[in-house]
Amino acid sequence: MLKNNYFKIIIVTIILISGCQIAKKSQQFYENQIGDTPFNKSLDNSNFKFCDSTNVLHKRAYIQYTGGEKALEEELIKKYVFQPEHKGFSGYFIFRFAVNCNNQTGRYRIQILDPNFKKANCPKNLETHILSISKSLKDWNHAFYKGKDYDGYRFINIKMENGKIVKS
Amino acid sequence: MKVITCQILFIIISTIGYGQVNCYIFPEGSGERQACELCDKAIKYPQGSKESQQLFDEAIAIGPKFAWAYYEKSVPYFKRGFLLEGLDILNEAIRLKPLEYLCYRAYWYWQYRNYKLCIQDLETYYNLPKAYIQFTPGGEKDMRIILGLAYARTGNYSKGIETISECLNTYDSENDFGFADYHSLGILYVKSKQYDKAIEVLKKQLLINEDIADSYYYLGLAYKGKQNKEEAKRQFEKAILKLNDIGRYYNANAGFRVYLSDVIEAVNTLQK
Predict the structure, then answer these.
(1) Residue A153: its chain B contacts at CB < 8 A?
(2) Domain boundary among B65, B96, B127
(3) Pick from B96, B118, B150: which residue ends a domain?
């Protein structure tokens, strides 16, 4: 009898614990701010450091490229090597990344979308090439906000049609 | 004064679309009322913060039909490059209240340079029987002007001109015009090589707001198109001066942006 009750208690406990875990799973996890990107050793360069990781700005307009968006785009287009095999790709590459207070960049994350803004797949070598030319942009100017230097996040959106970068 | 009235009008109208909702319009104790009150709490935290996002989630759980919660939750995703996540959330708001939120999605399609989808949403919106005047979230442009510019970005200048002209015709007087409405129309006239009309419209622009550097550049292009090199040069020089003026009007959502290098190139081609 005692053994039977003991068994019931174990079963009930297991059900309760698993129930709690399901409830926990349904609550979405958030970083302190949407867009905070923690270091991931399989993706990120360990040399990139924030000057103050507790106070990274999410104000994209404050991080500018020398010569403006036009210079940025021209540099991308100049560095981009068109491969005829990528002619079939049209869509968007949206890169989020951080620029620290020393104008260094890191924590690149990417979304690839099709012309209808649905998640898309693109040839791996195209993705690698676009990522590498995006990372090669060096003329970033970190955020200067209310009289202080800041680390910050921003993103760039590269539009492609038939395997070529479209000017904005 | 005219300009201030205009700005206040824009802000009022744009906040009707995207601003705070009055929670008292929902019955006490209803899911929507509770969701609304949670959203009111959420927006007191910094936008995009964990605290505010979690409150929006709570609001959605209690009142899944309360569209404003989805809209507010989506905003930081769009602003920070999470387009897929932003769209997933905003689409729910649109499903519940297309009249209120279609234009907001169109705005982000425009921002992310998907002109085809922007046009699609705005055409759907303006075909809704109760469509009303909506503005960009910053309040600076009527969404019909964005639609006109989007047509132009797909190469359809004549439809762009038609759309913007029709929009401006619905205003009672020029007092209701935005700071860059004539400018937007002027660009499209230049692009479609209708230089006389471009000059006429861009001159009107300068009477409303003379602080957009790009207006002088396009005016210069129009004179250049009419072989008036002297006047073209004068306008390009004004554009350069204005581009160096940090107090100039930046004209958000211009659609076609002019840089110093464009103006210098234009001056150089005049000399050839």
Answers:
(1) 80
(2) B96
(3) B96
